[in-house]
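Re: beginner question about structure tokens

> Can someone show what the tokenized structure looks like for a real chain? I only ever see the sequence side.

Sure, here's an example I had lying around. Input first:
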Amino acid sequence: MEILDARALPADHSDILHVTPSSIYFRRKVNAEQYHISRFDLEDQERVDLSQDVLTDHGPTRPFVKHQKVYCLNEHDRANGGATELLTIDLLSGKTEQVATFNVPGDLSLYWVLNERYMVLLHVDRVTSAFLYDTKAKQQHLIHDKRLYGMTENYRELYFFLVTLQDVDYIVCNTRLDEFSFYDALESGLISPEDPIDHSEGLLIASLETIVSEIELGTEVLSFKTLLRLDGEGDTVQYLGEQAGFLIFSAYTDRLNEEVFYQIRDETDVTELGRIRWSDYEAFDFTYDDVESTIFIVNDRSEQHHEVINLRTGARFLDRDPFERVLRDRFYVHETIGEDAEPMVTIFDAERYVRHRFDDAYYMIVSGELVILSVNQL
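And the corresponding structure tokens:
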């Protein structure tokens, strides 16, 4: 992991696609609907457009990177019923290939690239629907279970992501299930945003093979299996990323004031890693961190020192300046507001014993690298 200062880029967090130690690949917006797929070389500070022609997408433009290729859409003259192309652009050679062409009314958006074969696309034409496209068979199948593309119904929150466990691809969903339609109740005045809501937090999982097969069969409700479920008000299930080929989650039970770490090997194998009673700590602050698959707490602080603990490993980190998390046991990261009320990121490199300060900035982790971006691009 290295620090890459990308504040000069005309890009924000939604534009950064892929990062290497020498280059940053990003979506360069020409206007609200047009863009290029571009590369910025850090050594010579030069920008190269990989897309030969400007690309157009009237919907929420969301390129994906899989196996060194960018997947994106390009629309042609939508007002006159023109086609929408699904393209791939090779990150190394810049070669563009047309994967598919769609001729449909309304608007298409690339919602999710599951792998090199299967894509999920949103179609908006009076109503919103979605379909699974098979690039090998050149077929598309309507997705009946609207949860998969964010139509939540009684689910107050849904967070889907794709993971590979034991060489098998899975779709995992971290979900909050209300006992009634939360937003309908808000609109009708049945409840207010301040009212406590009976809900359950859960973790759902299904193999990608199962989901694809059921979509192709027209299944109405996809067969996600419940791995974890909590039912108390204030209980939470928290995604903590992947580590050593396993999925890491924590579950907090408000009644016990207790957090339990879980390791997930597959859809049948859930192992408890550790258990923490929050009453044992008087933390000043804490961060659920999906980069290090842990929870960091600010355990002690004074004018002379600050201490942060990794609650999964028990590792303690000390510095004289404030910080909230540690990346790769090396970078001590602190976000704050500067003297001119501008956001600032401070990073202490404990390996090189160097402190970096970035004004008017925020940071994100992309492709395992620490990327600094400017808030001016937001």
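Each token stands for a local structural state, so reading them left to right follows the chain. The chain has a mean pLDDT of 88.
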